[in-house]
Amino acid sequence: MISPKDALRLVLDATTELPPETRDLPEVAGLVLAESVCADMDQPPFDRAMMDGYAVPQGAAGTQLPVVELVAAGQASTVSLTEGECAEIMTGAPCPSGTWAVVPKEHVHLDENTVQFPPQIRERQNIAPRGSDRRQGDAILQPGDRLDPLAIAVLASVGKTSVRVVRPAKVAIVTTGAEVVSPDRQPEPAQIRDANGPMLSAMARATRAARVVHVHVTDEMDAITDTIARHADFDVLVLTGGVSAGRFDFVPDALKKQRAEIVFHKVGQKPGKPLLFARRESQLIFGLPGHPLATHFSFHRYVATAIHKMQGQAAGRPVLTGRLTKPVKRRKDRTAFVLGRADDRNDSGGIPQVEPLPGRSTADIFRAVAPNCYLEVPTGPDSIPAGDPIQFTRLDPI
């Protein structure tokens, strides 16, 4: 049995970034860029008016000038301003040649077709000069950048309709057990509804995986072996149940039949002690315990972290420090990971307050009310008292 720290290290050591692919702009939100992107022209491409007002030549301060043109956004100017004239201009419009400044409408006085200007006008005021944001050829996005909506706006502004990104992962989830039925069925006396399949599918989609499938099989060696074989083309294969030491725990032997290399089996943690991790060529395979909270934690700490690294995202979760609002028990034999609620309103020491939300067991999902983190409780003989610091990691947002 290995430590949670060593288990996570082995998972990350076995995880490599997926190859890049080209995707159209509407399909890249949340993905990671795999190419450099440069400005294809100066940005802005012309001297741009930043206010509705009047473009004026030098020497206009304190004078009254006639309006010789109206320049709207998207319209090129047809005049070159000379001393003794001005042009009305809209926000975003290109400044006429000879423009020294743009004076806002609220700073002038109109008299029929002439404009009285204030006594002081600063050179280049309310003008965004050509190339002031980026010059043609300047790098604006780099490989590894996450493509959020603002980054997508930048891509569009430089004429990109498609872009190279790190390929998002394909994830297959296999739930096992003769006692498990789909949520739309009424369970028989010895059956339960499947909570793990929908939960893990949601967690996988939260990583922005490209494809997530879920299948269910009974606790039979041939069925499990065949299912593992059929999903060989997925980047990540996640099985739940069948990884402990019971008579019907066939997953380890089924993986060996499919020539998967088992990297480790059993971790010194609660929940999730029976966790199994294997590799089959480039495919990563996780055997998770069947109890929902153990399944949730194991996916959170290990599977999601591996998917993030595959997709070019940050490998490993930030470990934060909070202050306990109530005592939490420690175990002598294993590191405990407890669902909790971190309050973003800091205490007087500038540290988040963290409330542990323990359930009765690893099957008790009903007490896990609005958690947003996992607390890491190190081994020890005593409880950690309220007020002491505790390390935690955030849950992935959906």
Keyphrases for this structure?
alpha/beta; Molybdenum Cofactor Biosythetic Enzyme, Chain A; Molybdopterin biosynthesis moea protein, domain 2; six-stranded mixed β-sheet
Walk me through what this model shows.
By secondary structure, this protein is α/β, with parallel strands linked by helices. It is built from six helices and 26 strands. The strands form seven sheets. It has a six-stranded mixed sheet with strand order 7-4-6-5-9-8, with no helix packed on it. Strands 16-13-17-21-20-18 form a six-stranded mixed sheet, sandwiched between helices. It has a five-stranded mixed barrel with strand order 22-24-23-25-26. The radius of gyration is 31 Å and the shape is elongated.
In short:
It contains six helices and 26 strands.
**Number of folding domains?**
4
What's the CATH C level of the largest domain?
Answer: Alpha Beta
Structural class: alpha/beta
Count the E strands: 26
Rounded average pLDDT: 91
Task: Tell me the overall shape.
Answer: elongated
CATH architecture of the largest domain: 3-Layer(aba) Sandwich
Which percent bin holds the helix content?
Answer: 10-25%
How large a portion of the residues is in β-strands, by DSSP E?
Answer: 25-35%
Nearest-angstrom radius of gyration? Answer: 31 Å
Major sheet description: 6 strands, mixed
Strand order of the biggest β-sheet:
7-4-6-5-9-8
Query: What are the low-pLDDT stretches, counting only 5+ consecutive residues below 50?
Result: none
Instruction: Provide the CATH topology of the largest domain.
Output: Molybdenum Cofactor Biosythetic Enzyme, Chain A
Cα(first) to Cα(last) distance is 32 Å
Write out the CATH superfamily name of the largest domain. Answer: MoaB/Mog-like domain
Could you state the oligomeric state of the chains shown?
single chain
Helix segment tally:
6
